[in-house]
Amino acid sequence: MRLSDLKLEKGMKSIFGDSDVELYPPQEDAIRAGLLDKNKNFVISSPTASGKTLLAELVMLKSILRDSGKCLYVVPLNALAYEKYLNFKDKYHSVAKIGISTGDYESSSRYLERYDIIILTLEKLDSLTRIKPSWLRKISVVVVDEVHVIGDEKRGPRLEGAMARFMSFNRAARIIALSATIPNAVEFGDWLHASLIQSEWRPVPLKEEVFLAKDDKIIERVVDEVKGGSQTLVFVNTKRGSASFARKIAAQLKMANKELDKLAEHVDIGVDDLGDMVRCGVAYHNSWLHPEQRRAIEESFRARILKVICCTPTLAMGVSLPAKMVLIRNYKFFTLGRGNEPMPVCWVKQVFGRAGRPEYDEYGIGLIVARSEDEREEIEDFYINGELEEVESRFSAEAMTEQILATIVGGAHHTDQIFDFLNSTFYAFQNRDEMELVKEEMEDILAELSEEGFIEIKGYEIRATGFGSLSSRLYLSTKSALELREGIEVLSELDNKGKTKISDFDLLLLLCRCDEVVPLKVKEAMEIASSFSDNLEWVYSGAYALGSAIVTHAWIDELTYPEMKERFGIYPGEIHNNIYVLEWICYAASRMAAYLRDASMHARLSVLKDRIKHGIKTDVL
Question: Regarding beta strands 206-212 and 364-370, do their DSSP bridges make them parallel or antiparallel, or are they unpaired?
Answer without folding.
Answer: parallel
